[in-house]
Amino acid sequence: MSCGCDKESPRDPRGVVREEYGKIARGGGSCSGPSSCCGGPAAGQVAAAVGYSPEELAGLPAGADMGLSCGNPTAMASLRPGEVVLDLGAGGGFDAFIAARKVGPSGRVIGVDMTPDMIEKARRNAEAFRKSSGLANVEFRLGEIEHLPVADATVDVAISNCVINLSPEKAQVWREIARVLKPGGRVSVSDLALLRPLPDAVRESMAALVGCIAGAVLVDETREMVRAAGLVDEELKTAPDYIDRMAEWSDPLYRELSAKLPPGTKPSDFVTSLDIAATKPAVVIGA
Ligand SMILES: C[S@@+](CC[C@H](N)C(=O)[O-])C[C@H]1O[C@@H](n2cnc3c(N)ncnc32)[C@H](O)[C@@H]1O
Fold first, then answer.
1. Does 283 have pLDDT greater than 90?
2. Residue of 16, 19, 21 to mutate, ligand 1, most atoms within 8 A of C-beta
3. How far apart are CA 115 and CA 225, in angstroms?
4. Structure confidence at residue 251 (pLDDT)
5. Which has the minimum average pLDDT: 40-44, 53-57, 271-275, 276-280?
6. pLDDT by residue (tens digit) across 199-245?
7. Measured from the CA of 161, which atom of ligand 1 is nearest?
8. CA 74 to CA 109: how far, in whole Å?
9. How far is the CA of 146 from the centre of ligand 1 (A)?
10. Full domain range(s) for residue 213
């Protein structure tokens, strides 16, 4: 399956990302065929590989897992009943629904996504989730993660799965996360990151951008942005084996990526899954 983004293109990257994820939400496919992040039929396979349990997956509305994840942020978040969770780039609501069961009826989950078709799909899923679980604690808001439609200091835990790499303004996203977290609030984000810079041929590919690779930045750059936003106690853990698995599954995007890498190198030499934990200081120093 192919789309407009499988060729190099001078188009606005944010517009391309929105358009391609809109197609995925409508069930129209993916950037270069079945691939994680870019979307594809390997949904359950990707989720199992990053540690989602069969019970968690069984409790999801049909179609919420589109194989778009690259980590398991709710697993590291240690969510507690009653907490308010924000899911940045919630897609069809995959992690939002898993979080909703963990925070229970006294908690709340807000999913934000900039793609109208994703929000529509997530809201339909929320209705199905309400009927199957009896929980009405998930809502989805249309918006950009660089300008979160969420009030200051209202969130206990910010989660996100394979999204921040897609943002052209990552430092701004981290500042927004810090703004909406309550003092003492936590971050649990999974994303793709770079172990070393990508060759230009990959960095400039719109297919690789939509596939969550071309927009990724170095692990150390991510750490700097987290700290610059005022978050503390950051822990960044790499998991390059996720990339090896995608390559093993002959994912078309990873095949294309391999072809553009220098001889003797493989995708996981450049790209890794990254788990990021951090907290907002409970007391602002100097306040
Ligand atoms: C790879 S998908 C991940 C979806 C979901 N987190 C999951 O794991 O199933 C990326 C999602 O982020 C959304 N997105 C990308 N950039 C965004 C931005 N700047 N603001 C809000 N949403 C964004 C896309 O519309 C898409 O739904």
1. no
2. 21
3. 25
4. 77
5. 40-44
6. 999 999 999 999 999 999 999 999 999 999 999 999 999 998 888 88
7. 6
8. 12
9. 12
10. 6-279
Question: What's the structural domain count of the chain?
Answer: 1
Q: What is the pLDDT of residue 44?
A: 78
Q: Is residue 181 part of a domain?
A: yes
Give the Cα separation of 113 and 117 in Å (integer).
10
Buried b (16+ CB within 10 A) or exposed e, 36-68: bbbbbebbeebbebbebeeebbebbbebbbbbb
Q: Looking at ligand 1, which atom is closest to the CA of residue 168?
A: 19
- Which of these, 245, 249, 221, 237, lies nearest to 277 by C-alpha position? 237
For ligand 1, whether the C-beta of 144 sits within 6 Å is yes
1 in any annotated domain: no
114 lines ligand 1 (CB under 6 A): yes
Which residue out of 60, 86, 119, 163 has the highest number of ligand 1 atoms within 8 Å of its CB and is therefore the one to mutate?
163
Comparing 251 with 151, which gets the higher pLDDT?
Answer: 151
CA of 79 to the centre of ligand 1 (A): 21
CATH of the domain at 183: 3.40.50.150
Burial class (CB in 10 A: 0-12, 13-18, 19+), 203: middle
The rounded mean pLDDT for the chain is: 90
pLDDT given for residue 261 in this prediction: 93
What is the mean predicted confidence (pLDDT) over 40-52? 76
Three-state SS for 111? Answer: strand
Task: State pLDDT tens for residues 58-116.
Answer: 999 998 999 899 999 999 999 999 999 999 999 999 999 999 999 999 999 999 999 99
Residue at 285 is within a domain: no
**Ligand 1 centre and the CA of 43: distance in Å?**
15
On whether residue 287 sits in a domain, the answer given is no
